[in-house]
Amino acid sequence: MTTRNACLERDAQDPLAPLRAQFDLPEGVIYLDGNSLGARPRAALPRAQQVIAREWGHDLIRSWNTAGWFDLPKRLGNRLAPLIGARDGEVVVTDTTSVNLFKALAAAVQMQAGQPQRRVIITERSNFPTDIYMAEGLSRWLERGYRLHLIDDVAELAGAINQETAVVMLTHVNYRTGYQHDMRATSALAHAAGALIIWDLAHSAGAVPVDLHADGADLAVGCTYKYLNGGPGAPAFIWVPERHQAQFQQPLSGWWGHAAPFAMAPAFAPAEGIARALCGTQPIVSLALVECGLDIYDQTSMAALRAKSLALTDLFIALVEQRCAAHPLGLVTPREHARRGSQVSFTHPHGYAVMAALIARGVIGDYREPAIMRFGFTPLYTSFTDVWDAVDILCDILDKQAYDIHARRDAVT
Amino acid sequence: MTTRNACLERDAQDPLAPLRAQFDLPEGVIYLDGNSLGARPRAALPRAQQVIAREWGHDLIRSWNTAGWFDLPKRLGNRLAPLIGARDGEVVVTDTTSVNLFKALAAAVQMQAGQPQRRVIITERSNFPTDIYMAEGLSRWLERGYRLHLIDDVAELAGAINQETAVVMLTHVNYRTGYQHDMRATSALAHAAGALIIWDLAHSAGAVPVDLHADGADLAVGCTYKYLNGGPGAPAFIWVPERHQAQFQQPLSGWWGHAAPFAMAPAFAPAEGIARALCGTQPIVSLALVECGLDIYDQTSMAALRAKSLALTDLFIALVEQRCAAHPLGLVTPREHARRGSQVSFTHPHGYAVMAALIARGVIGDYREPAIMRFGFTPLYTSFTDVWDAVDILCDILDKQAYDIHARRDAVT
């Protein structure tokens, strides 16, 4: 059994430990919610100052050219690409994950339009709800009648995907359980039946190694404000591999997706390449801050981050199971490394109250219905000692029943 | 004929003149491009610092509740509402103008679905291109077959709107010419034929008085980064009047538009009220800065701003026509006050080169094909002396032919 001193020793040996200094984290907080909102890179404040005072305030309209604002979605996309196994010119950072998913779904359905028997979109009932809602929204508006098939268990996938399947749409790492799909095997399953597959990387980009090309993905979307530390609600991304770009058509055909946006022509002609996934003018201040998060990734590798992430989550699981064995905690996240994201979820009958007590003691995770306490582990700024201390506080709260089972539930946690 | 001293005198008497101090404008610049990117409110920098350092960096995930991030689209919408004749709970600040127009168009088409003969969307060929592109995008995806009818002249509207018209979609003030539609008369024309009318207020909100309810609009969208000074690419807005909210259905049905977003239910149920126009998580830093622009509007009235705007544009037209009479300049913007926005456009055979020379001398307007020089007048920070000096420099450039007709054209100006 490990000790706090052993954790301190591991931190001292950890080559990633110095990266924590690049984040601004408040004193007395153990932040295990980077899977919901990433911590703030220190560079974000001076970068915002540059964009607001210099680029906006001083250079004004010229900054669309001189500060490269117009090219920012593509430039940031190229910087993000290596983290997910994408290539130059295949990713743009733009809009929200929901809107990008709509584009991807609409384009995928259109690519399958030549096979009119393919009218089913498959996803999981446990998927992040907005993904399901967007698929519902699209299906309702396509008059030829698409049907959403929600599966309840991963084991159903193989049986569900068939000649009627147009698109399989999955979130690679589940937001609630931390379960990680086998992207390669599942993509192959979809392709064997002639279906296309879209991956939502909201809980994967910057969290686990992703290799979209090697693993046979068709389209992907994701988020920059979780593990990538882009800032609250920072613009999302969409990936369209070069092999699909010529066929990629989406209904949100705004001027940023036009072949010649400044010709002001009255008819739409899609841009060549990834720019056709763009739509309207982007929120530049929020967009620019995404780069501060990506800069930090340049200083390490996804392999190193993954090794530490697994070490942190292994340690957390082991310590909770050893030290809180007397309490009704249920591990939801897979023990198998290949199936685990960068979070650990435990159920507890009073999960909401226990999480509220943890937060009050400075251990910030979050709660998701039903009864699930989520703990996100970001190897860029989480230490082994943080894990020890978090479990220590959790045990103390459970041992003393120091939580209020009538705690008021906030709208958002 | 007026003089520079007379302009100085007008500025000294101008009750709006002190508002200029609330903007950060570079020395030596006369900024006549606030119709493209509004100037920076001084308050934007400290507000960004608060959001980034305090709300994001220190309070982290809790800020969704404690800093009111989740309610920001509605709260800012309520603050913007009085500027456009909207009511509380009818406006949200969110997404881009293009995306909001897609929602509005889709919802309007859906409201007309009971009348299957209505399959035409009418707009102007001279509309801002993205509006046309979004209508094209939607029409292409609606399989029952909608047709876009582009009119070439306002006079055609009355003849074009008929029993086949589902929706009339117009930009209230034209981005290129500064022509302002008669919202009341045109809305009445649409309604008389049973059509719905959507107004794009990109060049109206904060620029001219707008009274959506009194003038019979059905739906509206608009922009916060032009006259409203919200920051580069700041989120746009959408207005759904209470009378249409129950029928307002749109396909971008993301989790922020759900009746209970945190219940994480696997089926979509639209929120009551304006929240159903929301979709995904918003870029909070850019969104928060919108408030700094709105704060300044609280210190004056649209009536006072309109009076000064007309005085500025009248003065600019008169001075250009008097002092540059020898040059081939053509006024594009209506002389009639009721038909004029808050900009003045002149054609010149070498419009691009002349504008480049103006910009090099610190007079920042912009250029739009074909041959149009645009000058935007923002009464919050533009003085009568600015107008005098801008015309003085324009005359000097034209008199000396001090412009390079081979000037390289930037992608964006």
UniProtKB/TrEMBL annotation, chains A, B:
Reported cofactor(s): pyridoxal 5'-phosphate
GO cellular component: cytoplasm
UniProt superkingdom: Bacteria
Keywords, sorted A to Z: Hydrolase, Pyridine nucleotide biosynthesis, Pyridoxal phosphate
Residue positions where N6-(pyridoxal phosphate)lysine is found in the record: K226
Record-linked NCBIfam families: kynureninase
Subunit structure: Homodimer.
Family to which this protein belongs: Belongs to the DegT/DnrJ/EryC1 family.
The name this protein goes by in its record: Kynureninase
Biological classification of the source: Bacteria, Pseudomonadati, Pseudomonadota, Betaproteobacteria, Burkholderiales
Gene of this entry: kynU
